[in-house]
């Protein structure tokens, strides 16, 4: 029978011989229990791998949490030490608020005392600059307000209210133009209501004959220097106006 199976089949003309085994269905003769056991082993292997991965991830998360907790604890200890140090340092500066309060009072007192401060020289120079040609200044007399007292009365009825006035005496070798002199005095920033009280011919030894001019001019609030007040970047001190007037007069 084996020889019969091994004998080659006759081939049809034009077609190759085919094996009788080709194309036959195959049957798995293993018992179902064996197949189930093999599948269970594969599932167990994958479960073990998954369990190991989960354990590794849990260990990694735990290590990360421990690191974060350690850093937070270290930061807390550093902050507590810094707080203790600052608390100790604070006792060294317990006098600072008191000194600051005294300093603020001193600054305020200086502002009050200097509220009526005037840079007089620039106004004296400005008045001398507008005198007639050949004239010179003999004297100045100043009356004005103080931080504790208000301004005095005007020199005469034609002058309005002001913070003070400057009375001056000058001499001129020629007849002065009183109207032009008053206009020139009123043109000085911070000065107003100028008035020439008298013009007298006087003679002295060594100088000869001259005209003695007595007059006064009122002071406006803008003459206050303001140098003891907080400095403003946009507004120059009021006292600078007198310097400008001096330059114009020259």
Automatic annotation (TrEMBL):
Keywords: Coiled coil, Membrane, Transmembrane, Transmembrane helix. The lineage of its organism: Bacteria, Bacillati, Actinomycetota, Actinomycetes, Micrococcales. Residues 69-96 form a coiled coil. This is Fimbrial assembly protein. It comes from Cellulomonas uda. The keyword Membrane applies. Residues 233-242 have a biased composition (Low complexity). InterPro entries: Extracell_DNA_Util/SecSys_Comp. The chain crosses the membrane at residues 46-65. Residues 228-250 are annotated as: Disordered. The keyword Coiled coil applies. It comes from the Bacteria.
